[in-house]
Amino acid sequence: MALFDRNQRQRSSFCSTATCVAFVALCFLGLWVASSPEAVPKAISLASAEKAAAKAEVKEEDSSIDATNTVKQGSAKVVAETTTAAAAGDAKGDQASARDQMFDDENGRTEGGELVKPGSGGGDTDGAAVQAGKGAEEAAAETDANKDAGGLDPASTDAKESAEQTAAGATEAKESGAVAGRGTPKNGTFEFDDENGKMDGVDLVKDDGNKTRISEESAKVEGAALTVKPVAKSAAATTDTDTANTAASTTTSSDEEKAAEALPTVQAELLTERAAQNGSFTTQAAESTEEKKNRAEMKRKKGKKGKKKAAGGAAATAAAWKLCNSSASADYIPCLDNEAAIKKLKTDKHYEHRERHCPAEAPTCLVPAPPEYRDPIRWPHSRDKIWYHNVPHTGLAEYKGHQNWVKVSGEHLTFPGGGTQFKHGALRYIDLIQGALPAVAWGRRSRVVLDVGCGVASFGGYLFDRDALTMSLAPKDEHEAQVQFALERGIPAISAVMGTQRLPFPGNVFDVVHCARCRVPWHIDGGMLLLELNRLLRPGGVFVWSATPVYQKLPDDVEIWDEMVKLTKAMCWEMVAKTEHTVDDQVGVAIFRKPENNGCYEKRPQKEPALCEPSDDPNAAWNIKLRACTHRVPEDPSVRGSRWPELWSARLGKAPYWLDSSQTGVYGKPAPEDFAADLAHWRKVVRSSYLTGMGIDWKTIRNVMDMRAVYGGLAAALREMKVWVMNVVTIDSPDTLPVIYERGLFGIYHDWCESFSTYPRSYDLLHADHLFSKLKPRCKVLPVVVEVDRILRPNGKLIVRDDKATVDEIQSVVRSLQWEVRMTVSKNKEAMLCARKTTWRPTEVETR
């Protein structure tokens, strides 16, 4: 009985203890529930999480944009990238889970289950989201504390994952609510504001020098969740006792320390290809008889080469890179240094050896850089001096130093601004021309100039001070690296020669053609070379000639002058001004004007030079032989060339008078509307993305090339920048180059299946808008990317906009070249890439 009584007392004590424990537990549970009523974590199985991730991956093609941007800043490496689902990370090491977000465009829900209500205020949503996030973080903290204390309950892992996913959903709800204050998503889609450079719901990306800081709230772009996170940041780890405070401090510190480089506000327009057509424009390929033969031959061999070409592209990408084995070494231009083709020439009487002779197969080797190459001196200081080691040639300084062309000064090559004809500087010479013929009106009436035999291009370099744009040309190696000096100085120039073929420009486009002691024998071969200038010169335009025959009385000079007078008279050119040699200027200038109508041609007593056949198109320039004939002047008031264009700068943004609504533009609209839409498009893109959204330091950009220019809209949009743009119109695209010249810009015809006629390391920025995909039917992409590598300077930038498959292919190639891929963006089937060329070069040299 005593035993029984003792057991009864023990049972009563046990029940009391159990009751107290249960009561305390319920109190704690109630307190926790009361403090965070909306944040009860829901257990989500791994299977359901994987199913959600798979669903998001399926939707990625339609609703997400990939954007990657990698940059090294000091010792911290920062990566900005998009994700298509919330990323689960270690709460101690990364704290990224609270920032990874995914927006469901179809129903407006976030992955956390919170419904986004368009048009609602942000206040209530913000408060609920903050509380939900706080509760989830506390749940995660409690789970971690139990785990550290030795609690190994299998449910703890699921509880932790539930808390993290709830936190991600709550954060998404918070940001979605906050969006309503700045711009509400409509129909589940964020709209881009081109005027302000931002998307509704996305903060404006702010540029700080060449680094762009982007807030977490701005990391949501067009249905893609953007994650900005530091890599391997040990400072993020803190104690486990106060996880909520740790998360807040980590977010603040990482925001202060990270500087993600220029992530663009990725508007839909950036990645929308406007369907390009030919419209009412013909092409250079159609105009060139030589090109017609080449295309016929290509079509005949297409069946044989098609499979081989398709198989060769990918294989070549994986091949080991090698340096080019050429005697030109660091100055190698494939189409001008084709030694095998030059040796086979029967004559070089007409400078055939300086003309283009492209290899049968485009090279895939890399051109080495000079051993001590460094970033070029910035404009405008580069006009006066460049680094000697970037263009390590002293021959021109030794040969022309006494004429004030170029001098060696320590580690620099300096350009005093003079030249053979510029004894007192180029600006004084430019003003001498204006004084001789005030109607020249530099920078107003005369905007686009061609300088033949340019030397180191000081004439064109100083015409920038008069707001005139000069295309300078000279043959390669006539004087050592003269065109390379010009480009290194930041002055437009190409390697070309007046030999047996037409220059790659349309007819009737240059306002002024200039030749200062260029030593071109204008009067020989029936005046064929001067007749080529006549083709290029706009009706009413002038030819400025300041060679020695103008002002010296030596027998040879007198003979050349007499022949020149006869030829220009037969061509109906009028000599409108001539200055005599003076002690001060030590140079004389003769200025001839091209006729504005055909009256003189009809009244000529002699018929030489003959008028060209009506079938001879003055705009046909690619692989066309020179002809000793004169093209008639357009007289129909609706035809280009019948009257002078608008004064600069009014001509830049105004559609040319000869584009009318009956013509179809490149993009399918009536031509004037097409022109205006193109300009508006590029102005928005430049303002909203290129200038502030890509991390490009525009102070380092001077020489720019638009590899597929169409109307020259990009160049027009960059007008306020201290850059010049070489607009390239490809031979198989609509011939819009006359439009580019009419608006006061310049450019050149080119076939990107061949090498460009410029020195290596010529350009700071190359821009290719839907170029590479259009080249694929005719040539491989790989050699074109190698050509881009050749002409782009180390640390230069490449921007590619094309279909996603093509951009992926280019990205693969440039990565193999050790380039830095700074940013990629993709949406649906369109993509954009921005990459920086590095100084990397292979060590192995190819065998011949």
TrEMBL record:
It is a single-pass membrane protein; Single-pass type II membrane protein. The keyword Nucleotidyltransferase does not apply. Residues 232-253 have a biased composition (Low complexity). Keywords: Glycoprotein, Membrane, Methyltransferase, Signal-anchor, Transferase, Transmembrane, Transmembrane helix. Residues 275-287 have a biased composition (Polar residues). Pfam families: Methyltransf_29. InterPro entries: Put_SAM_MeTrfase, SAM-dependent_MTases_sf. GO terms for biological process: methylation. GO terms for cellular component: endosome; membrane; trans-Golgi network. Residues 103-262, 275-309 are annotated as: Disordered. Residues 298-309 have a biased composition (Basic residues). Residues 195-220 have a biased composition (Basic and acidic residues). SUPFAM superfamilies: S-adenosyl-L-methionine-dependent methyltransferases. GO terms for molecular function: methyltransferase activity. It is found in: Endomembrane system; Membrane. The chain crosses the membrane at residues 12-34. Belongs to the methyltransferase superfamily. This is Methyltransferase PMT26. It comes from Panicum miliaceum. The lineage of its organism: Eukaryota, Viridiplantae, Streptophyta, Embryophyta, Tracheophyta.
